[in-house]
Design brief:
Blueprint lengths: L1 H20 L4 H24 L7 H25 L4 H15 L4 H4 L2 H19 L5 H22 L1
Helix pairs in contact: 1-2, 1-7, 3-4, 4-6, 4-7, 6-7
């Protein structure tokens, strides 16, 4: 599932980067990216994974479990950071997305561990260590990382 995961991640990254370019439309561009990435994985996952066989039950459980984990953690992040303003809330959500890539390594491969750790470090730096870093810059870096690692996953495997 590495190639399909890479396609999904790269498209999501494109949605994130466009949100950095147009911050007033950040959330709608993110949702558009999520919709496009989901459509791409639904349409192409079978063909992209065909040479390697069907995903195992374990891979599917981790895929869906990672998504459930992300939803739960985003809900907790919203509860914790909603009153703090847009910047901390969005960085907390980016941090959660990074966390969810760790178990995603089971269906999508070990590059997801590196991606998850790097995304957590980036969002965590802006959230806790350097609160003066501009949200747009951190948002753009997050998107570029997703595009880059997603493209490597898609092209290299």
């Amino acid at each position: 599932m590495i190639r399909a995961g890479g396609l999904f991640i790269a498209i999501m990254g494109l949605g994130v980067v466009t949100g950095a370019v147009s911050p007033s439309r950040r959330r709608s561009l993110l949702m558009f990216g999520a919709g496009a990435a989901t459509a791409a994985i639904v349409l192409f996952a079978g063909r992209l994974s065909a040479p390697y066989g069907r995903p195992s039950h374990l891979q599917l459980w981790f895929l869906f479990g990672s998504i459930v984990l992300e939803a739960i953690l985003i809900r907790l992040a919203v509860m914790r950071y909603r009153a703090s303003g847009e910047r901390p809330l969005l960085l907390a959500i980016l941090f959660v997305v990074g966390i969810h890539f760790l178990p995603m390594s089971v269906p999508f491969g070990p590059m997801c561990i590196a991606l998850g750790l790097i995304l957590c470090a980036c969002a965590g730096t802006g959230l806790w260590l350097r609160p003066n870093l501009p949200l747009n810059s951190l948002w753009a870096v997050d998107g570029v990382l997703k595009i880059t690692i997603g493209a490597v996953m898609f092209l290299a495997f």
